[in-house]
Amino acid sequence: MPKKALEDITKGIIERSRETREAYLERTSKAQRKIQREDLGCANLAHTYAGLPEHIKAKIKTNDKPNFAIISAYNDMLSAHKPLKDYPDWIKETLLQHEAFGQMAGGVPAMCDGITQGYSGMELSLFSRDVIAMSTAIALSHNVFDGAFYLGVCDKIVPGLLIGALSFGHLPAIFVPAGPMASGLANAQKSKVRELFAQGKVSRQELLESEMKSYHSDGTCTFYGTANSNQMMVELMGLHLPNSAFIHPHTPLRKALVHKAATLMATQTPKPIGEMITEKNIVNAIVGLMATGGSTNHTIHLIAIAKAAGIVINWDDFAAISKITPLLAKIYPNGQADVNQFEAAGGLAFVVRELLNAGLLHEDCHTIMGQGLKPYTQNPYLDGEKVVYKEGAKASHNTDILRGAAEPFLPNGGLEILKGNVGRAVMKVSAVDAKHHTIKAPALIFESQQDFIDRFNRQELQKDFIAILPYQGPRANGMPELHKLTPILGTLQDQGFKVALVTDGRMSGASGKVPAAIQVSPEALLGGGIAKIQDGDILLLDAKEGILQVLVEDQEWKERLPSVPFLRDPFGSGRELFAGMRLLAGSTETGAVIFGE
């Protein structure tokens, strides 16, 4: 049954995408025929090669050996991207051994939501994805490359790189990850300290010490947020070497995997990414997201990525796939484990095997390894300096973290789409206790996260309520994540109050134990129902039945006018430079892209 349901969902996506997909493949085919390095003028090529060492110039000017672009999000401020520093040199070195070449074609920006949370810079975060896509296109626009390596890890970086790569769909692509930092302070302890700080029970210095024990070295954060969901997703789409996502930085195996990626590109160049990424690869990514309890951000990003390949998916596809996909992993915030513990329990090799055996992945899709996902049931090891693959775990090493499809944590992926007069919203229920899946309470309208925090500090929120934060969507202010609310809402829930959140903003992969209807669409600034909610309205948030409804008469609701948008200062932290993007942003449900619907 699940296999038949998955096939039906995929057929629906293929049919819905037929015209746009055919148009995309036609553009890709034309680019492949049109752009050849030997057709460029000599002056153009001289500029391309001017900065190369003389011994490489002598070889590359014959134009009969492949030249590959390297596009990197390296910077040494962000722990996840710092390990990428040496990757370009390693890749070039290996390519040369196979009579191929590599050039560092361009860098893309990489900002950290963890740093900008709660501040004005967070309003640039979502749009940084599209800036990264455009930066990728600029790097590839010289049209002198036969393929590309993409080096990036975190929240908006990988989706941006993917969108940019798909705009050059005639080029083969390999994504090369950096891996997670070693485990630090347990995520549950970190969250507890945050809640205690919100209650005034620990000092700022104690909070800082706790956070620095959690985020302490090179690599991605170890909770299962958008960054690590990215890595899972790219693997299930077949763009990584198998099970390379969660190998630690600065280890011999990690370095060897970078060299192996370069060898693969030079000796067994994969299919062009535009041909390789089909509806089946996109569906596999959604299945992986549901099976592992991944980030809700991908209900935005995957839609935008698919659109870049001419594929049309929507929230109903996510909901349908969630219903048939068992939850196999409990990783924070859906559980207590971090990604290192998940990897030790069997990791993605185990997940892929279980999903394949259950008929819940399209095994016949193309990957950089060729056809089929079977290689992704294997794990890499070092044999001397050589990477070898061995079959991954056939049974979980820790069933508190990872389980098989026959005995999952939940029979579904824990993602619900709520509908009603407020609009449509995403709710991640896998981390929320079942007793909190339904809540009926009065609405309280807040202008901002800070407004919420101030009212909590004034002891005004010790009661049952549903917090409404409108005008937090892409058009309004760039759709920031609202994590500053999480510790406070968690504290109130622990005190016995019935609380929930409804917003057209984001909460992302760190969505926690409090019921939250997020990404409400249409957003308030586009006339969405969330803008009509008034203080004191009784709201029903019912994840079991998929309802998000203000309990007023239909006629009264129809006659209500939206509230006046909250006045905000559009300057500071570069926000004025993004005014045009806010005006162009599409709806959340169609990927919030600025490139047109």
UniProtKB/TrEMBL annotation:
Cofactor field: [4Fe-4S] cluster
Positions of [4Fe-4S] cluster binding: 154, 221
Annotated ranges, domain Dihydroxy-acid/6-phosphogluconate dehydratase C-terminal: 400-592
Classification via PROSITE patterns: ILVD_EDD_1 (PS00886), ILVD_EDD_2 (PS00887)
Cofactor descriptive note: Binds 1 [4Fe-4S] cluster.
Stretches assigned to coiled coil: none
Pathway: Carbohydrate metabolism; Entner-Doudoroff pathway
Keywords: 4Fe-4S, Carbohydrate metabolism, Gluconate utilization, Iron, Iron-sulfur, Lyase, Metal-binding
InterPro entries xref list: 6-phosphgluc_deHydtase, Dihydro-acid_dehy_C, DiOHA_6PGluconate_deHydtase_CS, ILV_EDD_C, ILV_EDD_N, IlvD/EDD_N
Location of the Dihydroxy-acid/6-phosphogluconate dehydratase N-terminal domain: 65-374
SUPFAM superfamilies: IlvD/EDD N-terminal domain-like, LeuD/IlvD-like
NCBIfam families the record matches: edd
Family membership noted in the UniProt record: Belongs to the IlvD/Edd family.
Protein name: Phosphogluconate dehydratase
Species name: Helicobacter gastrocanis
Gene: edd_1
